[in-house]
């Protein structure tokens, strides 16, 4: 019997969406539990490290989105062909994490003037530097983030984009033709297209 | 011929030390280049994403410490026996990354009063929560972070500890017997002991 999958996350795309993309790509049925803010305090305590996403696999709790995505990538044929290829995938996804952490460094600041002060160097310096190099990486890899072929890194990045764009306030890929093309490539995969059409509509 | 390894990092332990631990454990000869702050601006531009550590393997640049450590873990027999075991290792190391990011959220703040304000909730809430659960994870795993046996996650954590302790200002493991025991276990591995004895002495 196939294992049962249950994703536990908030009612947003965020860090849960890469997991949803990979499960959808692999045609793996999953329960998509969306915990609302009122429920969260009571749920938090029962999560292994007080965080979500948590993916339950046959009742066993797994946590940390990147760890889960790497595991799923392996199960659905989107990992590398060997350790060296897996390294290239990991280098790319960790760079996407750096990008995300740059956004997070200002996005959750409540004071508008402090937020603007933190946001400016990120938008003017860090983002152009990172995005320019990521765009070049995709160019070198024939339209993908690693190994010249589709991998879970591509799905991870594109699944996260709506959330990153929401935090930043603009489409990160707009000035980067290779990143834009990668986004289109992933969103045109039939299983991803189907998921994106049927998923609940949320801002971030 | 064995591949040639050259680690490029700053003159600190920091995120380079887990790479040094794993290379040492695997008895892999490596050049340990330590870039000083004066050299850094001229080196930065030539790094793939403007960051170190970078590990050159036969002249090919690899980056992102976790990606590099996972690759090395695979090469030296410290990965899991299957995808599920690798997932357990990844869940643990990503949790250590969360711990590190909590420290980084205050440690690089220059203004002492702002620093204190940021540090208090981390030290009083986040650290006890995360460390308590990590300690329990090690207890459940018979003295290791995953799978009831030594893995690259254990070396990663212990290699990073001096740096994390420096940022926090106290020994993170002091109130956590299982984490303290894990530290001793790793530091008593002959190849690690040899490396720790011969490495340059630095604060962090």
From TrEMBL, chains A, B:
Assigned keywords, A-Z: Transferase
Transmembrane segments: none
CDD domains: GST_C_Sigma_like, GST_N_Sigma_like
Catalyzed reactions: RX + glutathione = an S-substituted glutathione + a halide anion + H(+)
Enzyme class: transferase
Classification via InterPro entries: Glutathione-S-Trfase_C-like, Glutathione-S-Trfase_C_sf, Glutathione_S-Trfase, Glutathione_S-Trfase_N, GST_C, GST_superfamily, Thioredoxin-like_sf
Start and end residues of each GST C-terminal domain: 82-204
MF-aspect GO terms: glutathione peroxidase activity; glutathione transferase activity
PROSITE patterns: GST_CTER (PS50405), GST_NTER (PS50404)
Domain GST N-terminal: 3-80
The enzyme's E.C. designation: 2.5.1.18
GO biological process terms held by the UniProt record: glutathione metabolic process
UniProt entry tagged with the keyword Transferase: yes
Pfam families reported for this sequence: GST_C_3, GST_N
Family: Belongs to the GST superfamily. Sigma family.
The name this protein goes by in its record: glutathione transferase
Species this protein is from: Locusta migratoria (Migratory locust)
């Amino acid at each position: 019997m196939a294992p049962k999958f249950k994703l536990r996350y908030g009612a947003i795309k965020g860090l849960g969406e890469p997991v949803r993309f990979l499960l959808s790509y692999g045609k793996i049925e999953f329960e998509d539990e969306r915990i609302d803010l009122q429920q969260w305090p009571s749920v938090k305590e029962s999560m292994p490290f007080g965080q979500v996403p948590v993916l339950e696999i046959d009742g066993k709790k797994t946590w940390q989105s990147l760890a889960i995505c790497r595991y799923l990538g392996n199960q659905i044929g989107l990992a590398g062909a060997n350790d060296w290829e897996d390294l290239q995938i990991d280098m790319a996804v960790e760079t996407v994490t750096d990008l995300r952490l740059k956004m997070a460094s200002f996005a959750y600041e409540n004071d508008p003037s402090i937020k603007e002060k933190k946001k400016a160097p990120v938008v003017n310096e860090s983002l152009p530097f990172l995005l320019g190099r990521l765009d070049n990486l995709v160019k070198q890899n024939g339209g993908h983030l690693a190994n010249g072929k589709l991998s879970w890194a591509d799905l991870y990045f594109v699944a996260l984009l709506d959330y990153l764009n929401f935090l930043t306030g603009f489409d990160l890929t707009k000035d980067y033709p290779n990143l834009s093309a990668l986004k289109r490539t992933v969103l045109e995969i039939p299983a991803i297209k189907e998921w994106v059409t049927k998923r609940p509509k949320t801002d971030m």
